[in-house]
Amino acid sequence: MTSQTVTTTGRQDDEAQIRRVLDGIVDGLRAKDLDALRRLYADDVVSFDVEPPLQHVGVDAKLANWARVFAVFAEVGYEFRDLALAVDGSVAFGHAFGRLSGTLQDGSVTSGMWVRATFGLRRVGGTWLIAHDQVSVPLDLRSGRGLTDLEP
């Protein structure tokens, strides 16, 4: 086996592990399981989410965002599309489109909106953890409003 084969196989294994971490977001949200979500993030995660403030620092702040989602939704759906990853050693980044949807507490159903999601991950003790995430929507410069009706 050549060193190129070993490197490629290692990168493929890392990519598969990272995809499982990101799938864990989907599973954790659908189950409304904050403990499962906690295991996916680094303790010092920095999150640039769509809701204020500009940044949420630490896993507790990130989980508080998800807890607010659970308070609004009776049933949560989440999906990723077009996930692309780049892995190099103990760091990785990825980007995708994501959509939060489901049934609200009042019983109404929402198909949600598509957002742009970016992830920075690092390997800690052999485990890939999300160290940074950013969620955004395109902005209409004239009106200053987010464009929430776009689809991938």
Describe the overall structure.
The structure is a single chain. The chain is of the alpha+beta class. The protein has a single domain, classed as Nuclear Transport Factor 2, Chain: A, CATH 3.10.450. 32% of the residues lie in helices and 46% in strands. It has three helices and eight strands. The strands form two sheets. Strands 2-1-6-5-4-3 form a six-stranded mixed beta sheet. Strand 7 and strand 8 form a beta hairpin. It is globular and about 45 Å long.
Name the CATH architecture: Roll
Q: What are the secondary-structure elements, in order, as H or E?
A: HHEEHEEEEEE
Name of the level-1 CATH class: Alpha Beta
| Helix amount | 25-40%
CATH topology grouping: Nuclear Transport Factor 2, Chain: A
**Biggest β-sheet strands, sense, barrel:** 6 strands, mixed
**Whole-number radius of gyration?**
17 Å
Alpha-carbon distance between the two ends = 40 Å
Q: What's the β-strand tally?
A: 8
Secondary structure elements and pairings:
Layout: H1 3-31, H2 34-38, E1 41-48, E2 56-57, H3 59-72, E3 73-88, E4 91-104, E5 109-124, E6 127-136, E7 139-140, E8 145-146
Parallel strand pairs: 1-6
Antiparallel strand pairs: 1-2, 3-4, 4-5, 5-6, 7-8
Short characterization:
It contains three helices and eight strands, in the order ααββαββββββ.
